[in-house]
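Duplicate of #3305? Posting structure anyway:
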């Protein structure tokens, strides 16, 4: 039986054989709201119904038929003062959550959560004393809820000794993300390293692979940077420059400028940020080429605050910070979503403001973190609710918890570790280290004020944008100076011009070859060894044909086809040289062999056997073929790319052009060229020597050997000049091609003109090509053989006559000498007789 009063509840009469235990003796007739009474029974009687009843705000007591709820106690430390007085707003938010949870019939219906809290003043020393009181004062606490990183570190490290779960609402130190040191720690306040996944996502979105960092040397920034370094490494991003400073950032900023840092992550407090950006302005390390990433919890006008420690004006600071990007943890859900508490974030703020009694949020400590404290209570309530079933299956209950019970602690840990629900601060979920995975707001300073450009939901891995990727200016810059690789190609005008001359030379070679074959039966042509001249003409045309692949580069063919072009260059030029120069060398070598020997050996060699000449050319050709085959089998030619010094284009563009040039090369190119040039060089020198030695020799067997010698002079000089010059000019494609191709063209033109034009002129002007050819057609090849036989016969007769004349003269001299001696011995000698003897 009870009586209702507007300001409380009247006292209740005890039942028969029972009594009522009041909490504290009272003589009052009206008990306050939330006052509880407890029924007791005498003798062997037991209570039917609730054992405890509570005074409700409407002046009534809880229903007699309402089941009694068992209480679960939470030990909390709220810093109401000190370095971070976050408890001023976080405590009311937690109490709001507790009231809603205790009224819910679907969450812990048999239990009631009660908060026992103290003011830690954000001081680890004070927190140590309060933690002792919480642990060693009844009732037993099932969970601890500290705030402040320094206090949470102390509580979390000690809690495992009492098998207690620690759930923090206001701790951001990265050091707390250490499961080995803090095995039972969870937090709804994200770690300071939560900025790093967002930064990595932005780096990847804007295709940055190289970043730089500058940090203030404090533990929180060092650990944050260590985490960032690990994450970017996994993402394939390089930290190219890492600078740090204690108080003066001047040297660190200069190093960033010197090493061409473009994308820079800055980790420092607000006061140090002003020092950094004053130096940034001095070093001109800002503008559209650079992007700075800063922490988002600075004041909005932090760069406009006058600071005596810097010597930069507000205008200069505003210019230097323009365009920088900030990342800030989202502590209030930006979307209108009703979560586990059935409140939207805006409805929560309205109720919190009402509970604070109209206090100014900016003057209330922990107002930003209040949603985190609210969601921390809901995370705990949902986790405890999730453990009821598993514990019941094991014959355990939550109220059985004590500091030695590891099984209940393990179930609570498991439930918290798998938490996932929508809260007023966003989606609540914990990572493997027990840290909250939350949203990160991305802002950029545009025109002196911060503009929201996007946010990152770490729980889902989604990067979302406000509008259409609202980046200031034309878009994100490159992470380094953009190097554009540009191939250098041969001038097409030069290639076409040289190709025309080469084509005319090939046409000229065809004319000369046709002339020589057509007049091969003419005696004058026969005496010039026409087959060797044919080889010379063919070799000249092959050398001219090599000009075309010499001018073909990546502009005309694909990279896969370029080695084939390299092979054509090598083989056409090598075999063309062997045929053209080898045939001329063979002629001059035979003339020297025959006409510079002693008379007795000269007679044996004057009979010319053509097959020996052809064999000599064949040997030179085989040597070249074998050497080229070995080269291509052992060390084949392939395409190589030469890189040149980067060049800056005209205009204000953040680009450099890196010229590239394609070459035909092999692994031991210099060795092979040394062998080939050495062998060919010896042939050229020997050819010059033989041509000089035979310049005064005259023979009808090879009637054009003087012309051959002249051609050898020209070819040798051009080749010995061209080979080293083209190696020096190899990096200048136009000059190298012009020098090499023109040397080939001039050598061929000179050779063809010197060897074939005089023959054409003689046959045309003298008409020898008609009479000799007609006579040859009648008599056949025997005529030439008869003439040679007659010539040899005349030479033998001439020698015999010379011997007879010498013998007669010798005999006459001997007889005359005898006569003189005989007259001298006579006694009567006179001058007449002596004169007659002398005659």
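Output from current build:
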């Amino acid at each position: 039986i009870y009586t209702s009063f507007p300001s409380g509840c009247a006292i209740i009469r005890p039942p028969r054989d029972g009594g009522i235990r009041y909490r504290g003796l009272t003589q009052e007739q009206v008990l306050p709201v939330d006052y509880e009474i407890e029924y007791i029974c005498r003798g062997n009687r037991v209570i039917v119904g609730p054992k405890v009843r509570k005074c409700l705000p409407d002046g009534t007591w809880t229903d007699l038929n309402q089941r009694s709820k068992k209480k679960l106690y939470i030990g909390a430390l709220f810093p109401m003062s000190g370095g971070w007085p976050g408890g001023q707003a976080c405590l009311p938010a937690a109490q709001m959550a507790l009231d809603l949870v205790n009224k819910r019939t679907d969450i812990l219906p048999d239990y009631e959560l009660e908060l026992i809290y103290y003011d830690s003043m954000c001081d680890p020393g004070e927190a140590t004393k309060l933690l002792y009181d919480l642990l060693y004062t009844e009732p037993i606490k099932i969970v601890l809820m500290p705030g402040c990183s320094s206090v949470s570190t102390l509580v979390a490290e000690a809690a495992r000794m009492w098998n207690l779960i620690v759930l923090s609402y206001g701790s951001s130190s990265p050091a707390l993300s250490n499961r080995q040191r803090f095995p039972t720690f969870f937090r709804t306040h994200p770690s300071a390293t939560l900025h790093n996944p967002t930064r990595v996502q932005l780096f990847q979105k804007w295709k940055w692979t190289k970043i730089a960092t500058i940090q203030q040397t404090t533990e929180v920034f060092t650990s944050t940077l260590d985490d960032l370094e690990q994450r970017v490494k996994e993402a394939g991003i390089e930290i190219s420059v890492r600078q740090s400073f204690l108080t003066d950032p001047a040297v660190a900023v200069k190093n960033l400028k010197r090493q061409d840092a473009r994308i820079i992550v800055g980790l420092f407090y607000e006061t140090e940020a002003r020092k950094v950006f004053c130096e940034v302005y001095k070093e001109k390390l800002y503008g559209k080429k650079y992007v700075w990433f800063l922490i988002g919890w600075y004041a909005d006008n932090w760069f406009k605050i006058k600071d005596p420690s810097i010597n930069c004006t507000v205008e200069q600071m505003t210019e230097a910070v323009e365009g920088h990007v900030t990342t800030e943890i989202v502590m209030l859900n930006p979307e209108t979503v009703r979560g586990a508490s059935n409140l939207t974030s805006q409805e929560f703020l309205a109720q919190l403001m009402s509970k604070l009694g109209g206090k100014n949020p900016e003057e209330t400590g922990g107002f930003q973190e209040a949603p985190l404290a609210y969601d921390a209570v809901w995370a705990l309530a949902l986790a405890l609710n999730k453990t009821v079933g598993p514990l019941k299956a094991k014959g355990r209950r939550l109220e059985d918890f004590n500091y030695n019970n590891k099984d209940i602690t393990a179930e609570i840990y498991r439930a918290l570790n798998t938490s996932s629900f929508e809260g007023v601060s966003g989606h609540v979920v914990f990572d493997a280290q027990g840290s909250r995975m939350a949203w990160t707001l991305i802002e950029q300073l545009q025109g002196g004020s911060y503009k929201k450009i996007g946010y990152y939901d770490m729980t889902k891995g989604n990067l979302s944008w406000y509008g259409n990727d609202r980046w200031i200016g034309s878009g994100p810059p490159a992470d380094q100076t953009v190097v554009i690789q540009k191939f250098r190609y041969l001038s097409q005008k030069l290639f076409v011009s040289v190709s025309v001359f080469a084509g005319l030379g090939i046409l000229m070679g065809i004319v000369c070859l046709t002339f020589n074959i057509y007049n091969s039966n003419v005696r004058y042509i026969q005496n010039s060894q026409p087959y060797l001249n044919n080889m010379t003409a063919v070799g000249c045309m092959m050398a001219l044909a090599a000009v075309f692949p010499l001018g073909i580069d990546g502009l005309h063919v694909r990279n896969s086809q370029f080695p084939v072009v390299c092979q054509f260059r090598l083989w056409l030029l090598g075999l063309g040289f062997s045929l053209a120069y080898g045939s001329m060398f063979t002629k001059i070598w035979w003339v020297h062999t025959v006409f510079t020997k002693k008379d007795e050996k000269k007679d044996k060699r004057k009979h010319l056997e053509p097959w020996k000449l052809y064999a000599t050319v064949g040997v030179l050709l085989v040597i070249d073929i074998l050497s080229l085959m070995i080269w291509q089998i052992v060390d084949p030619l392939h395409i190589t790319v030469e890189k040149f010094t980067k060049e800056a284009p005209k205009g204000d563009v953040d680009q450099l052009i890196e010229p590239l040039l394609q070459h035909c090369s092999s692994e031991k190119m210099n060795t092979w060229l040394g062998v080939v040039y050495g062998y060919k060089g010896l042939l050229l020198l020997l050819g010059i020597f033989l041509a000089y030695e035979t310049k005064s020799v005259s023979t009808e067997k090879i009637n054009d050997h003087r012309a051959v010698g002249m051609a050898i002079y020209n070819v040798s000089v051009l080749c010995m000049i061209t080979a080293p010059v083209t190696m020096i000019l190899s990096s200048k494609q136009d000059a190298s091609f012009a020098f090499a191709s023109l040397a080939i063209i001039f050598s061929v033109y000179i050779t063809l003109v010197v060897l074939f034009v005089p023959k054409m002129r003689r046959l045309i002007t003298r008409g020898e090509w008609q009479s000799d050819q007609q006579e040859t057609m009648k008599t056949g090849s025997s005529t030439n053989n008869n003439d040679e036989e007659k010539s040899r016969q005349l030479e033998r007769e001439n020698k015999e006559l010379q011997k007879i004349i010498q013998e007669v003269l010798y005999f006459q001299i001997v007889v005359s000498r005898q006569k003189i001696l005989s007259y001298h011995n006579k006694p009567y000698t006179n001058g007449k007789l002596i004169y007659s003897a002398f005659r």
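Confirmed duplicate; merging threads. Residues 782-825 form the longest helix (44 residues). The chain has 24 helices and 24 strands.
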